[in-house]
Specification:
This protein has 16 helices and no strands. With 410 residues, it is mainly alpha-helical. It is globular and about 60 Å long.
């Protein structure tokens, strides 16, 4: 095996763009693999002689395993180092992708997808811990902004790539693509990825998973940052879960138009990430979290007001405020993550895993919950969706003032 790359010098003011590009590539594999299969599910169901509902487990169980994996992988990286866990995860991604092509039954395909989630999530959870290993909190927030951009933008454009591959070559090409991508990133990591975790933690003590976890949950500020990140993302997942219903079923637009509108929201998030990368060091993590949440509340309030005042409004009046909401989310998320993993730097991997798990768990509840809300109230406008988003944004802001701001002021 190639020797680890030398520990990078982080004293320079300029970020190491080569390492940052590698972390982005690692982090984007998991969310891309999550949604790239979605367009091919109806075709796969026919070819594998099963129902779309059964095959949908390749997505839903992938999400569940992605959430659980983040808890496990973060702790493993604190114990054994970042680099070996990343290498093993990328290798597992490539192997399970190829095994999915050779699957002889639906159950085997679902099992390979579930195992794929454990490997594919490695870069996402450990990449954030590696950034915190290298930089102090405010600088880490700026760097995490670039990494989290890949995590949010990749699943928006991945279905388009999956549809093109399925249409041109058939659904096995999707897994070939994932396997090739994982191998290329693996080779890159073998050559350039450094071991960033200090030996047995920053303070020289051997990490203890149970003690670290208890210490993190004993910190109200840590819980506050995790809730800010999770509830703030909840507003996005509400929109992800209910936006298509509003556009296709209520506004009677095509699924293609729905996909185009969803893609536009990524512009707001990318601009927010850019703002976080530029301003986090200057203003500090708490201030950036606060302003990101305030911007989200403004955007969700505007969406609710438009939905209530103009019930027959088209997609533009609903989606354009999403640029504001996603800008706020782009400012909030990297700073909230940096704040959470800075509470106990020697357990940055564990903290990153808990934060990632919470985001996925809240996201799943938000996306599924909005479907029940629509059914319960018999939604005929976008107002129930808008109010659900506003709820998550407001509760996230309350969590900040109750658990982060209040503790800092005391």
């Amino acid at each position: 095996m190639t020797a680890p790359a030398p520990f990078p010098d982080t004293t320079t003011a300029r970020p190491p763009w080569r390492l940052l590009a590698l972390l982005v590539a690692m982090s984007s594999i998991g969310p891309t693999a999550m949604t790239i299969l979605v367009p091919a599910i109806p075709v796969m169901a026919v070819e594998l002689s099963t129902s779309p509902e059964v095959l949908q487990l390749t997505v839903s169980l992938y999400l569940a395993c992605l959430a659980v994996a983040q808890l496990v992988l973060g702790t493993l990286s604190d114990r054994f180092g970042r680099r070996p866990v990343v290498i093993a995860g990328l290798a597992l991604t490539a192997i399970t992708s190829l095994a999915a092509i050779a699957a002889t039954s639906v159950s085997m395909l679902i099992a390979m997808r579930s195992m794929q989630a454990f490997g594919a999530s490695t870069g996402q959870v450990i990449g954030r811990a590696m950034v915190r290993d290298l930089y102090e909190r405010d600088r880490a927030a700026a760097m995490i902004g670039w990494v989290t951009m890949a995590v949010v933008v990749a699943p928006i454009f991945a279905p388009l790539a999956g549809g093109i591959l399925d249409e041109a070559f058939g659904w096995p090409a999707i897994f070939v693509f994932l396997a090739v991508w994982a191998v290329l990133v693996l080779l890159w990591a073998l050559r350039d990825l450094p071991e960033t975790r200090k030996p047995y933690g920053i303070d020289g003590a051997r990490p203890r998973a149970g003690a670290d976890t208890r210490a993190l949950f004993a910190s109200p500020v840590f819980i506050g940052y995790v809730l800010c990140a999770s509830l703030g993302c909840g507003a996005f997942f509400v929109f992800l879960g209910g936006g298509s219903f509003v556009i296709v079923d209520i506004m009677h637009r095509s699924t293609l138009e729905s996909g185009v509108w969803f893609a536009t929201t990524s512009v707001g998030y990318m601009l927010g990430n850019y703002a976080a990368a530029r301003a986090s060091q200057r203003f500090g993590v708490p201030a950036m979290v606060r302003w990101g949440l305030i911007i989200e509340v403004i955007g969700t309030t505007l969406t609710a007001a438009i939905s209530g005042a103009f019930p027959d409004a088209g997609p533009a009046l609903i989606f354009l405020p999403q640029l504001i909401i996603q800008f706020g989310n782009g400012v909030l998320l990297p700073n909230a993550i940096a704040g959470a993993i800075s509470i106990r730097p020697q357990a940055a991997g564990t903290a990153s895993g808990i934060c990632g798990f919470a985001q996925m768990a809240f996201g799943a509840v938000a996306a599924q919950g909005v479907a029940y809300v629509h059914t319960l109230v018999g939604a005929t406008t976008a107002l129930p969706l808008s109010l659900s988003m506003l709820f998550f944004a407001v509760v996230a802001l309350i969590s900040y003032y109750a658990l982060v701001h209040r503790r800092r002021m005391s």
